[in-house]
Amino acid sequence: MSGLFLRAGLLKGCLLTGACLSIAACTIVELPYHITKSAVKTTAYVVEGSYEFTVGTTKVVYRIGKFTFKAVKAPLEWPLGSSIETIDGLPPKEAIRQGRVKTAPYTVKGKMYYPMSIEEAQTYRATGTASWYGYGTSGSKYGHMTANGEAFDPEGLTAAHKYLPLPTHVKVTNLENGRSIILRVNDRGPFPSDRNPSSGERILDVSARAAKLLGFYHKGLVKVHIEVIQLQQG
Predict the structure, then answer these.
(1) Pairing relationship of beta strands 158-160 and 204-207 according to DSSP bridges
(2) Vertex 45 angle, CA 43 and 50, to 5°
(3) What are the CB-based long-range contacts (under 8 Å, 24+) for 213-217?
(4) pTM (two decimals)
(5) Contact call for residues 199 and 137 (beta carbons, < 8 A)
(6) What is the chain's pLDDT, residue by residue, as a tens digit (234 residues)?
(7) Which domains, from first to last, does the chain contain?
(8) Cα 117 to Cα 64, 143, 155, 163, distances in angstroms
(9) Which is it for strands 67-72 and 84-87: parallel, antiparallel or unpaired?
(10) Which of 42, 43, 150, 181 is the most buried (most CB within 10 A)?
């Protein structure tokens, strides 16, 4: 598998069965992200505390370097912050309740999105435009849940990505000023809006606090480099 370049046009889910003996008979899914398999290892960071929910837990608090993270499960009656219509073929909240979210395909405005696998995400790196969102852009100030069922917190160190497994941790660098932070990806987006279809071309939506720390809160948009990091227990 070394050196193999997985790109847009990858045949994902193309099963060579008796009913699918040629490329024409397979379902071709366009994947708008690029992953290069190489000998380069993803950076590992020491994490203090549990960063994943276990049975019966509703809150986790942990540290990665100088950054402290808090993740809280949202009540199921809270509204979903994004415009996701289905997750893994189920109503979003049912998929969240069943824990079928991490790498599950989902739909937004009739379009199907296929997240990358955990293995693919390990070497994921990308450069592109990032934006930020908070209570004002989410349309609710009373609380809503992210795409994996966590309580959205504009003051948290979180982000939204269309294709990374939920949750995933990424290092985000503002290429205009060199500032870097680590974020927990726990939501989906950004997606094209009716007023601005090109907004779907952005690769990351970060929380209001993350935008302030990265130095583009007042600017709104910035060019960033993101890379997935691996966590090891301290």
Answers:
(1) antiparallel
(2) 140
(3) 213/179, 213/181, 214/130, 214/172, 214/174, 214/177, 214/179, 214/181, 215/174, 215/176, 215/177, 215/179, 216/130, 216/132, 216/174, 216/176, 217/132
(4) 0.83
(5) no
(6) 333 333 333 334 443 334 343 333 433 344 666 555 444 556 689 999 999 998 889 999 999 999 999 999 999 999 998 899 999 999 999 999 999 999 999 999 999 999 999 999 999 999 999 999 986 655 555 688 999 999 999 999 999 999 999 999 999 999 999 999 999 999 999 999 888 888 889 999 999 999 999 999 999 999 999 999 999 987
(7) 1-31 (no CATH), 42-76+117-233 (2.40.40.10)
(8) 23, 30, 28, 9
(9) unpaired
(10) 150
Q: Which tokens hold the place of 31?
A: 């994947």
Q: What are the tokens at 158? A: 């979180």
Q: Give residue 79's identity as a one-letter amino acid code.
A: P
